[in-house]
Amino acid sequence: MRFAVARDGAVFALTLGRSSGFALLDQETLDTVQRANPVPAPPAEVAGDPVQVMVPVSFFLRGR
User: Fold this and answer.
1) Where are the beta strands (DSSP E) in 9-48?
2) How far is CA 1 from CA 39, 45, 63, in A?
3) 3-state SS, residue 31
4) For a tag on the chain, would you pick the N or C end, based on fewer CB atoms within 10 A?
């Protein structure tokens, strides 16, 4: 998952680095970040405006 965080914590420019192969999981990854928007503002010592973020996302599926 890649996205940008503005200095005020607003999240935008969400993209998947690689598809999981399942549209539902891909969409949930995007939705999860959108639900967290806005996030805490990046600390002053972190360079960039906006700050570029890449986060690995893993899903674990269990059978019934």
Assistant:
1) 11-15
2) 15, 23, 25
3) helix
4) C
pLDDT digits (tens, 9 = 90+) for 20-50: 999 999 999 999 999 999 999 999 999 999 9
Nearest to 30 by CA among 5, 50, 11: 11
**Are the C-beta atoms of residues 63 and 35 closer than 8 Å to each other?**
no
CB of 10 closer than 8 Å to CB of 40: no
Pair 9, 41: CB distance under 8 Å: yes
User: What is the per-residue pLDDT for 23?
Assistant: 95
- CA 52 to CA 12: how far, in whole Å? 10
Structure tokens at 53: 């973020």
